[in-house]
Amino acid sequence: MAITVSLSLPTIEAKGLTKRYGRFLALKGVNFEVPEGKVVALVGPNGAGKTTTLKILSGFLKPTEGSVRVLGKDPWRCHELKKDVAFILDKPNFPPHVKVADFLREAALMVGKDEANGWKYLKMLDLQQYAERSFGKLSAGNMQKFAIAVAMLREPKLVIADEPSSNLDPGARAQFYDLVLEAKRNGTTFFISSHVLAEMEKVADEVIIMSEGEVKVQAPLSQLASSLSGSEFRVTTDKPEALAMALGGKVVDGKVAVEETKADLALIEAAAKKVGARVVAVERTGSSLDEIFKKLVSED
Amino acid sequence: MSAFWRFLKITVQEDFRSPVAELFAFLMALAPLTLYVSGPDYSSSFTDAQAFSYLSSALGLSAFLFLILIFKNVSFGLGSDLEKGVTASFLTFPLSRGKYLAAKLISGALLPFLMFMVFPLPVVFAFAPRFGNLGALFLYWGIVACGYLIIIGLMTLVALATKRGATSLIAGLALYFASEFASAFALFFALRGNKTAFYAVSLLNPSELWVSHYKMLGASLTVSSSVAYALTLASGIIGVALVLAAFLVFERVVQL
Questions:
Q1: Minimal Cα–Cα distance from B93 to chain A, Å?
Q2: CB-CB: which of B14, B93, B96 is closest to A110?
Q3: CB B51 within 8 A of CB B131
Q4: CA-CA distances (angstroms) from residue A275 to A48, A103, A212, A266?
Q5: Do A284 and A260 meet the contact criterion of CB atoms below 8 Å apart?
Q6: How far is A235 from chain B (nearest CA, A)?
Q7: Given phi > 0 = left and psi -120 to 50 = alpha, else beta, which region is B218?
Q8: Phi, psi of A31 (to 5 degrees)
Q9: What is the pLDDT of residues A200-227, one digit of tens each?
Q10: Is the pLDDT of residue A3 over 70?
């Protein structure tokens, strides 16, 4: 009998991460792991410790206590790590008098990639028309797009992004998340901090919710939604009372509401047939990430 | 070419962008005129004292011009980059903090110093074709380097501590003018027999030490060459120590 054992290490591993700024404790023993090939969203209210966490992962800050490993290495010490790990900062900035095209060429060569790779992402993000401009003449949104292009051109194993879409217009946001999904298909891991929960819902496999310097929960998004929200089916039918009784549910707004844990589509169909009810529509309701987030954070 | 050289290339491009380079070239072209107006007979053979005096007048303005370039590069090149997040963006590349700072200081300070060493030489030899006292030339370069190093070290440390370009510039200017004023006061006391303050201030700017040694202020203040060399060396050591401290602080302490 063949036994397959997975030896893959987590892409990011944080253990007991504590960060103190003077008397203020920004992180209080944070533990989490980011599995390989997943998109993990880091969400939390302002002051939750998200940016501090990302800055530690980027090697910009040293933790007061605890340890962090990115691709198995300490980001504070290992600079070569940055050939495989891309960081997208929340407010990226580049030398104001250097031209975009000049910087792109040097940036590609700094990470051992071809310049053409950079142009590919510049075109994907509709930035090629700004190539001859200096950074001082770029808008905040275009600066952010350039930061994304420069991050992606190295074809990284891991992307750590702090509010990557904060300066982007809706079209550019969609382009960015398309890019995330495409890179994920090629095996890239993403660890993204964002306030735009609806966007995270579309791309994230797992969610880490932080509040007041602590990790409140880390779970796959689907599991989190069902375990916390009590997802249910809403069935539109001509005999709601009878179907509700057969399924052990209740009638809400003229529809049969039954918890997802008690029924599935086959069971609903069988119960409807048994009581002679005609099923017009079945909807599945569940809490959005936004609702889950509010619920968890309000519990504090 | 490694990430360091690529980054250095970008930094030089930024520090010596147009019209900064053109402006300094123009000012350098003007500098010899001041020498011509004040020039004695430079064609005679030079003693050490005459050579030092000649170099002080020939290169003094250039030294100040390149100091302005250093002020600009360290405060705006390093301080403002820290302030505006440009440093953080660069450190997302495979570039260590030490190499980042080294490239910044090579572009912002070492290059201007090398330019100071090379560019005014045609002027030196144009006005004194028989000038051959290279020892005096090296000494003058060394004295200027000591003053530059202390200012560069302090400005870099202030930029790293405050992450503000303007604060770094103010610190650099304050040190420069404070040392000039202090030097004048210390000289006043030294001429009345108390050299302690004069020697202490010379650690920040050793040029007055050599001016006194070569009796350019008259015979009333004497400084032996051994004292002048020792204090110049000490000044250089302080400058180097400040720059090394900046590297240490950036690599181990500064959090972005």
A1: 6
A2: B93
A3: yes
A4: 52, 70, 52, 15
A5: yes
A6: 52
A7: left
A8: -125, 130
A9: 888 888 989 898 899 888 888 777 766 5
A10: no
CB distance from B255 to chain A under 8 Å?
Answer: yes
CA–CA dist B134, B132 (Å, integer): 6
Least confident of A8-22, A145-159, B102-116, B205-219: B205-219
User: Is the dihedral angle over the CA atoms B51, B54, B58, B62 positive or is it negative?
Assistant: positive
Whole-number pLDDT of residue A270: 86
Residues in chain B with CB shorter than 8 Å from the CB of A87 are 92
Tell me the Ramachandran region of residue A112: left when phi exceeds 0, alpha when psi lies from -120 to 50, beta otherwise: left
Residue type present at position B129: P
CA-based nearest residue in chain B for residue A52: B256
Chain B positions in Cβ-Cβ contact with residue A161 (cut-off 8 Å): none
> Given a cut of 90, is residue B2 above it in pLDDT?
no
Q: What angle do CA B170, B83, B162 make, to 5 degrees?
A: 50
Interface predicted TM-score (ipTM): 0.79
Q: Which of B17, B81, B255 sits opposite A60 (nearest CB)?
A: B255
Q: Are strands A232-237 and A255-259 parallel, antiparallel or unpaired?
A: antiparallel
Nearest to B91 among A60, A80, A151 (CB): A60
pLDDT band of A4, cuts 50, 70, 90: very low
Place B74 in a pLDDT band, splitting at 50, 70 and 90: very high
Domain ranges across chain B: 3-252
Contacts with B95 from chain A: Cβ below 8 Å: 79, 82, 110
Q: Cis omega before residue B19 (within 30°)?
A: yes
Over residues B41-61, the pLDDT tens digits come to 555 567 888 888 888 888 888
Cβ-defined contact of B256 to A61 (cutoff 8 Å): yes
Q: B44: phi > 0 → left, psi -120 to 50 → alpha, else beta; which? A: beta
Q: Is A97 on the interface with B (CB under 8 A)?
A: yes
Which strands form A214-220's sheet, in the order they lie side by side?
A85-88, A158-162, A189-193, A39-43, A206-211, A214-220
Mutate to test the interface with A, among B92, B107, B250, B251 (most CBs of A within 10 A): B92
Tokens of B10: 């970008």
Per-residue tokens: A282: 């079945």
B7 vs A contacts (CB less than 8 Å): 106, 110
